[in-house]
Design goal:
The complex is a heterodimer of chains A (777) and B (168).
Chain A lengths: L2 H20 L33 H5 L15 E7 L5 E7 L1 H5 L3 E5 L32 E2 L5 E7 L2 H8 L3 E6 L6 H6 L3 E2 L1 E2 L2 E2 L1 E4 L2 H7 L2 E9 L11 E7 L2 E6 L4 H11 L7 E4 L14 H13 L3 E4 L2 H7 L6 E9 L5 E12 L11 H4 L6 E10 L13 H19 L3 H7 L17 H12 L12 E2 L2 E13 L7 E7 L4 E4 L9 H13 L6 E4 L16 H24 L13 E4 L2 E4 L2 E7 H7 L4 E7 L5 H4 L3 E13 L5 E11 L6 H20 L5 E2 L4 E2 L18 E5 L22 H13 L15
Parallel strand pairs in A: 1-15, 13-14, 17-18, 22-23, 29-32
Antiparallel strand pairs in A: 1-5, 2-4, 2-6, 3-5, 7-18, 8-9, 10-18, 11-16, 12-13, 12-15, 16-17, 19-20, 20-28, 21-22, 21-27, 24-25, 25-26, 28-29, 30-31
Helix pairs in contact in A: 11-19, 14-15, 15-16, 18-19
Chain B lengths: L1 E4 L2 E4 L8 H8 L18 E4 L2 E4 L12 E3 L12 H8 L9 H16 L18 H7 L10 H17 L1
Parallel strand pairs in B: 1-5
Antiparallel strand pairs in B: 1-2, 3-4, 3-5
Classes of the chains: A alpha+beta (777), B alpha+beta (168).
């Protein structure tokens, strides 16, 4: 980090600290969400309906066009060569045979790559999307085992793949830290997440732990994981009139465009990133080296380029979730009340990125206790930059915390649900802020009833069918409500009574286009088929990251702002001859394709009539969302109660999940059909994390050993039981539509629910994931 | 040398290294068939060859001279979706939609296999006609990976198709 960056960071921290003191004290009405979104009151519209995806017909016909499917004239294909040492220099590169191979157009290495600026690393500014604080193919340095060292362009993919196999490389290796033991020996560093230290100390937790009549104090381990979206990372790239067009699979089109502009010394307006469909993201589909290398090679060759990473290439060049080692210690009274809650440990990072897997985030707001000691420290390994993967922090943090709570329930002889409810906080236990909404107890009760929790025997190993031991477990799911700054929306309303809503957002399977259409239609008082949503294009104003489960909230707030501006414009256009004459935007609502006075519904006029009289074809309003101050005013979280039944084979050690229920408290659900799918999807990824997923890392040389879908196991159809999902549907009064993002909470708590069920079945407590057969024999 | 793709004849590629998958996607611009791993591990590239499901990434296009290939683009007829395509929409049998064409083609091939009595790992009675229980469907579809976690909806949709075929 440069001195300038440090100064900027310090200034930012000062402002944040001041805001952090003032915003909590402000009256609710000054805060976004302080006055509830009027849509929350509307109960009989389309919101909450189980609507099929609007892009469904395209997807089931294979007609939705993904990034690597844009046909461009004169296009060439790329293939990458990867380093095979973890750290050092390239001593020699022999590219002669590759250059002479049939069809080859270009071999690009650090010798001939165009000079490019280092991409601004993610987190260094709101627009920064760079994968690491590293130059890309600008010198002979190797920073990880698998770093791209050459790009071949050829007329066909077959020619490129063959030519890249002819490249010879020799290296001058340098000492590298590739084992966790060596990394720990070098000393951990404090973790900083979004500029804030990952540390909370309230009271003397160690002393209170020591004095507590009941204690649990254990170490939990989680391995590396990869996103493994089924769509390979790929892009179709062209330079057109000096500008750069990238058809990408991206979760952050606007930030990616801004970062690419910085890399290639372009004006942001000269870069366009589109991402109409993303074939699964989960945090992985961001900016990595391959898009930059593809653009550089396209510039050198003066040809459009299609660059699609091989499945192995995804593992080499796209980071995943890092490993963690977490201590959770709980000190409790005999009645179950927590005296001390300690959650600390380490996560590995590379020297060139900053993503300290923040596994304590869920613990900060989860339970009441008299004292807390929470911290994440990082250790440094020479490896590919680790990154966000579904519920970064909570996914693995809840495994440790919720396993430990189950252990405490056993220690105390108290039902684990009762123990959790006994420690339910009445305000955020570490920030002291009031919760914006928290109905987790309701979720627990509804879930326990439906799952038949009362049938569970508290004594492990008591339910047996033939070779199979059967057990039940539960865990809390939790994920924050986020809304990031910078979102905008543009609404174009036509005389034909149709509206186009544009947001620089993304569709990776969440159902963004569908729910955005539903919400916009409801807000505009139009039928769904009168609203078209456009998204996934950096030329749309604003920036909306598909991450942190914030997209729904960010879009919601941006559309609220644009809608308000639109109504004000319409009232101006309506003029003095309208039944609405003299009314302000606050006095009218949108219904049946027009404006209506809220408390006098006979005063109304249709959009068509207003625009007709004003002789306008369209009215356009574009606005930015309000700054997300609500996040500093309330403690805002989604919650869930997870229930799992497993069958463990006493002969083979195999664990089968036979039943699973997620009971969620995540605000108002916008689309029952797509929401159910998102919850289930998270839960299924959690089942993978619990039982099979692990990116195996060779500690001798830093190389990933299982870079394929045959050796990195994810759940298949046969592994997935029918997953039951219910929700409270209690609106959060302080969020747009009363909704919360729900893309990530589903994975949280799952691994603990499985591990706790395995304990209930077998009496064996597995504290390192995944729970493979060998650990149960 | 020619091949029939969704009823239309196409010239096979000159380069014998071209997989059927790349031939479809890059030469014919039939990008509905997806590439998820290019090594036979994910099933996204599943197509039907003379009614049989195959992984097009592990098939060389030139091996399929004279054969009839059906891809996801060839399932709807006259603008009307195949019943399984419609069932996928109704049951939300997908999220991102990337594994979907492979799941759908695979399911159609799977049903054909079951009709001719092919057993699976979970078939208890090898002498009886195959009953496509939920467990059988799950087992027989396990070669098609989905990372979004649409498994329940996929099996529900296929179950609906199988039930409709039985009723017919």
């Amino acid at each position: 980090m440069s001195i300038l960056d440090a100064a900027k960071g310090a200034a930012q921290a000062t402002i944040q600290a001041a805001m952090g003191k003032l915003v909590p004290l402000a009256p609710d009405s000054w805060i976004p969400g302080g006055i509830p979104d009027p849509l929350i009151r509307r109960q009989h519209g389309v919101i909450g309906a189980a609507l099929s995806r609007l892009d469904g017909p395209l997807k089931v016909q294979g007609a939705a066009r993904f990034a690597a499917e844009f046909p461009l004239d004169d296009m060439v294909y790329a293939a990458l060569a990867y380093a095979t040492i973890p750290r050092g220099r390239i001593a020699g590169l022999d590219v002669a045979a590759a250059e002479a191979a049939p069809g080859v157009v270009l071999v690009m290495t650090h010798h001939n790559a165009p000079r490019m600026n280092q991409p601004a690393v993610f987190g260094s500014s709101p627009e920064a999307a760079g994968p690491a604080d590293l130059p890309i193919m600008q010198d002979d340095r190797i920073h990880w085992n698998g770093q791209p060292i050459a790009v071949v362009l050829a007329e066909t993919q077959e020619q490129a793949d063959h030519a890249v196999s002819l490249i010879g490389a020799t290296y001058a290796p340098e000492p590298a830290t590739t084992s966790l033991a060596a990394a720990k020996a070098a000393g951990p560093q404090p973790g900083l997440f979004m500029g804030q230290p990952l540390r909370n100390e309230i009271g003397d937790a160690e002393a209170m732990l020591a004095a507590a009549p009941h204690r649990v104090d254990q170490l939990y381990r989680t391995p590396r994981h990869n996103h493994n979206a089924i769509e390979l990372h790929g892009a179709t790239i062209a330079w057109i009139d000096g500008g750069l067009v990238v058809h990408d699979a991206s979760q952050l089109v606007s930030a990616e465009a801004a970062t690419l502009a910085g890399v290639f010394d372009l004006d942001v307006a000269q870069v366009r990133v589109t991402s109409p469909y993303v074939g699964g993201g989960f945090g992985g589909k961001c900016l990595w080296d391959h898009q930059i290398l593809g653009a550089a090679a396209a510039r050198l060759a003066a040809r459009p380029v299609r660059i699609v990473l091989s499945r192995e290439g995804v593992y080499r060049g796209v980071g995943g979730r890092t490993l963690t080692e977490q201590r959770v210690a709980i000190g409790a009274e005999a009645d179950g009340r927590f005296r001390a809650l300690i959650h600390s440990g380490i996560a590995a990072m590379s020297p060139h990125n900053n993503m300290p897997e923040p596994f304590i985030l869920g613990t900060r707001s989860g339970y009441a206790a008299d004292s807390f000691s929470l911290s994440v420290e990082t250790v440094t390994m020479n490896m590919l930059a680790n990154t966000f993967m579904r519920a970064p922090g909570e996914s693995v943090g809840t495994f440790a915390l919720e396993s430990a709570i189950d252990e405490m329930a056993v220690e105390l002889g108290i039902d684990p649900i009762a123990l959790r409810i006994r420690n339910e906080p009445d305000k955020d236990p570490t920030s002291g802020l009031p919760f914006s909404s928290r109905d987790i107890v309701e979720a627990w009760r509804a879930g326990a009833d439906r799952f038949g929790w009362a049938q569970r025997s508290a004594t492990p190993g008591t339910r047996r069918e033939g070779e199979w031991l059967i057990g039940m477990g539960c865990a809390t799911a939790t994920y924050p409500y986020y809304r990031m700054p910078g979102a905008a929306a543009r609404i174009t309303l036509g005389r034909d009574g149709k509206a186009v809503v544009e947001v620089a957002a993304h569709e990776m399977g969440m159902g963004t286009a569908t729910t955005t259409t539903m919400v916009a239609a409801e807000r505009l008082g139009l039928p769904i088929d009168a609203v078209e949503v456009r998204y996934g294009d950096s030329i749309i104003p604003g920036a909306i990251l598909a991450g942190g489960s914030q997209q729904t909230a960010a879009i919601g707030a941006a559309v609220i702002a644009a809608h308000r501006a639109l109504v004000a414009d319409l009232l101006k256009l309506a003029g003095n001859d309208s039944p609405l004459a003299g009314l302000s935007a606050d006095e009218v609502g949108c219904e049946d394709g027009g404006l209506v006075k809220l408390d006098e519904p006979t005063r109304r006029e249709s959009y068509a009539s207003i625009l007709d009289r004003a002789q306008r074809e369209t009215v356009v309003a574009a606005e930015e969302a309000s700054p997300p101050l609500e996040l500093m005013h309330w403690s805002m979280h989604s919650h869930g109660a997870m229930f799992c039944e497993v069958r463990v084979n006493t002969v083979t050690g195999e664990t089968r999940v036979s039943r699973f229920l997620g009971s969620f408290d995540c605000g108002r659900i916008l689309n029952a059909k797509t929401a159910r799918s998102q919850f289930r999807g998270g839960i299924i990824m959690g089942l993978g994390m619990a039982l099979m997923e692990e990116t195996q890392f060779d500690e001798r040389n830093g190389r990933i050993m299982n870079p394929s879908l045959s050796e990195y196991h994810i759940p298949v159809h046969r592994d997935v039981p029918e997953i039951d999902v219910i929700w409270t549907d209690i609106a959060d009064p302080h969020t747009p539509m009363g909704a919360h993002g729900i893309g990530e909470i589903g994975i949280t708590g799952v691994a603990a629910a499985v591990a706790n069920a395995v304990y209930n079945a077998t009496g064996k407590r597995i504290r390192d994931l995944p729970i493979t057969l060998d650990k149960l024999l | 040398m020619s091949i029939s793709i969704n009823g239309a004849l196409a010239e096979l590629p000159q380069d014998p290294r071209v997989s059927l998958l790349d031939f479809l996607r890059e030469d014919l611009h039939l990008a509905g068939t997806k590439k998820g791993c290019n090594q036979g591990a994910c099933g996204a590239c599943t197509v039907l060859v003379d009614g049989e499901r195959i992984l097009s990434c592990l098939a060389l296009a030139v091996q399929y001279d004279g054969r009839a290939v059906t891809t996801i683009e060839g399932l709807a007829e006259g603008g009307v979706l195949h019943p399984l395509q419609q069932a996928f929409i109704e049951h939300d049998g997908f999220q991102c939609g990337y594994c979907t064409p492979g799941q759908i083609c695979s399911a159609i091939g799977m049903a054909t296999e079951a009709r001719r009595g092919a057993a699976s790992h979970v078939t208890a009675d090898l002498t009886a006609a195959v009953t496509l229980s939920r467990e059988e469907l799950q087992e027989r579809m396990s070669g098609n990976l989905c990372r979004c976690g649409a498994h329940n909806g996929i099996i529900d949709a296929i179950g609906e198709m199988v039930a409709a075929e039985l009723a017919a």
